[in-house]
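TA notes, week 10

Several of you asked for a full example with nothing omitted. So below is the full record: structure tokens for the whole chain, then the designed sequence directly under it. When grading your own attempts, check the secondary structure regions first.
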């Protein structure tokens, strides 16, 4: 079975919003065994929407002659004048919009729950083209719509990603699953992603060898982002369960080959994994940051429940602050500079002592100019942009690692934070 996804919104074609809806929906469809042929993006323009709906309904898709079997549309169901999806649909179906009383009731209830008056403009969200069915919205105001254009089933979902996802899960997924099983043997995909830190993409590829050859089932892919290399296992089978089973031996082999380079899977983050280890060990941590300006503390506290292990953080950005708040010896600062092994060492040791935690991480480095790339500019002699010292103190002492990270300011700061988290992770293992 094949599908197309149409995303509607001026903000999408202007590049102000990245179309995450189409990406998310594609993943959902592919795990149901539905092949997505195209992503189409149009602005809030009734003629453009009408054109795409006509094309999608019953017409062969652009890339091959298979008729499109299902169309998913997101956006343009809001109450304002630029929300034109329902009008476009009425035009395509050559019908009128009609008030759908139960939807109006739900929208009114939505505002009662929020304890806010409902604006007149919200009425239009309960207007549905005659002959179409409504998909209830349990998180927002805009109901979804489903109908057929020609012979093609079409689902209209809200643009707000959170609303779109709930509506897809509650009202669309099962219908699609039924269509797929009625359609006979289709290949369903299952996925597993393993995240690694500490080895580059090419070393990973070397360790995996022929596991990454094309044309296998499962197939193994690699993607890298800020020195985290993620390995994706994609398997195909007649149903999800069979596809999942195929993943298991490949995952076991990957874990055997990559060992502690692997820090987690699927939704895991480095900070989340470190948090889990700290909690398991009953340990606490503090941080002292300079060039990362609090990013390490932010990552650690992004995890709910982090108060059980995260004690405190200092952003000692200036030399003065390093001396005043973390008692860095001014002579050491003078002699070696703020970006030095010695200062990283003092920051970690003193943060650990002051906060009385089991561990403290410190980061001091040269993040460089915004959008810049590593090079001689910005760093003093012998200290290039991207030079970052990371310290880890525990009650036994301090270790400091020197790194020179590539990339611009944002990249250097992120890499510094991930590297610090990974140092602590390996310590905790
Ligand atoms: P709804 O149908 O839910 O009312 P809408 O398109 O009518 O959606 P907008 O106000 O245009 O409502 O968009 C609501 C929010 O959803 C905006 O923040 C918008 O950027 C976001 N959004 C819309 N479409 C997408 C998309 N395809 N991907 C990611 N975000 C999107
Ligand atoms: Mg919109």
């Amino acid at each position: 079975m094949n599908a197309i996804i149409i995303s509607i919104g001026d903000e999408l074609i202007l590049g102000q919003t990245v179309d995450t809806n189409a990406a998310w929906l594609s993943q959902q469809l592919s795990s149901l065994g539905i092949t997505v042929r195209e992503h189409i993006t149009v602005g809030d323009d009734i003629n453009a929407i009408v054109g795409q709906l006509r094309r999608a309904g019953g017409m062969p898709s652009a890339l091959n002659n298979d008729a499109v079997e299902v169309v998913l549309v997101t956006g343009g169901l809001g109450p304002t004048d630029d929300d034109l999806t329902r009008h476009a649909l009425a035009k395509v179906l050559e019908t009128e919009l009609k008030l759908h009383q139960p939807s109006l009731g739900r929208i009114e209830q939505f505002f009662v729950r929020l304890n806010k008056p409902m604006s007149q403009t919200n009425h239009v969200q309960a207007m549905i083209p005659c002959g179409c069915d409504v998909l209830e919205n349990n998180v927002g105001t805009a109901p979804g719509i489903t109908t057929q254009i020609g012979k093609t089933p079409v689902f209209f979902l809200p643009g707000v990603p959170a609303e779109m996802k709930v509506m897809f899960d509650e009202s669309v997924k099962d219908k699609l699953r039924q269509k797929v099983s009625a359609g006979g043997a289709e290949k369903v995909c299952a996925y597993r992603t393993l995240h690694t830190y500490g080895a580059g993409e090419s070393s990973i590829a070397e360790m995996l060898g022929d596991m990454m050859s094309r044309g296998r089932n499962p197939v193994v892919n690699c993607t890298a982002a800020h020195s985290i290399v993620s390995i994706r296992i994609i398997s195909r089978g007649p149903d999800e369960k069979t596809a999942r089973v195929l993943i298991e031996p490949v995952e076991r082999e990957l874990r055997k080959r990559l060992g502690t380079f692997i820090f987690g899977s699927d939704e895991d983050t480095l900070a989340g994994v470190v948090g889990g280890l700290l909690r398991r060990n009953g340990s606490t941590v503090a941080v002292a940051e300079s060039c990362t300006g609090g990013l390490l503390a932010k990552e650690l506290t992004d995890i709910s429940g982090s108060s059980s292990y995260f004690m405190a953080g200092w952003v000692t950005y200036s030399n003065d602050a390093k001396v005043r708040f973390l008692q860095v010896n001014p002579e050491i600062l003078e002699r070696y500079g703020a970006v030095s092994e010695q200062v990283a060492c003092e920051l970690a040791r003193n943060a650990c002592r002051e906060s009385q935690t089991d561990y403290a991480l410190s980061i001091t480095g040269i993040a460089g100019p915004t959008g810049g790339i590593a090079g001689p500019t910005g760093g003093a002699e012998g200290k290039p942009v991207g030079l970052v010292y990371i310290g880890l103190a525990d009650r036994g002492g301090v270790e400091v690692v020197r790194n020179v990270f590539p990339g611009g300011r944002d990249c250097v700061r992120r890499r510094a934070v991930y590297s610090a988290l990974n140092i602590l992770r390996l310590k905790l293992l």
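Confidence is low (pLDDT under 50) at residues 372-377. Use that as a sanity check on your answer.
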